[in-house]
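Record type: monomer structure entry
Structure origin: computed from sequence
Chain ID: A
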Amino acid sequence: MEKKLDPAKSVVLVSGGLDSITLLYYMRKLAFIKDGAPIALSIHYGQRHFREIASAAKICHSIGIEHVVIDATGAMECFMGGSQMDLSVPVPEGHYADDSMSLTVVPNRNMILLSMAIGLAISRGRGTVAYAAHAGDHPIYPDCRPEFVNALQEAANLAWYDGVHLYAPFIRDSKADIVTYGAGMGVPFQDTWSCYQGKDIHCGRCGTCIERIEAFQIAGVEDPTQYQDKEFALDTIRRSADV
């Protein structure tokens, strides 16, 4: 049996990035109508940029959302793959669409993280799990594609007696669309974290920084983010447009 969407009794998988925080605000807005609130779930899986969890915590605290953090580093260390988890692998620089971005893939990450989110939802009596996959993720990350969401929904229907609703409302939207949605809801973009380097400020050189800058440009929304090398990103975007 598949449960219906219930934002007031949902678990939102939140990394601390622009996409997932916008989703949290969106679910919070929907839940308000039913006088409820989602739970935010962040998972520390050994990612190089784990400082994103501090961003998630700060934002959740500011809007009064319960924030659950699971430390899964022990379980995930056997999946050491790509630049996100293996510090010996340099973080690729350049546009997000480059083939080199496949180096950022953590094997089966969303399957694992969403399984944890579904488990938390079941244990807390919540029938909806939401995550912020979007259309820009599709070329690089197979676990952000509609086919994956549909297949996992079928599994979630069987994982518990009355099912769990898997909700990915941005699955066909661009990151620029998400920036537009977030701006309309007052998302504090300056407090979100995208950079794969995970240092003090966004690097401006990795694929996620470039994608972030480009999304603000396309959406026509002012980007409050501080970047170490924004000119590199802007030049990369200009060269990509000229091709």
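Annotation 1: Residues 105 and 141 are 7 Å apart (CA to CA).
Annotation 2: The longest strand covers residues 39-44.
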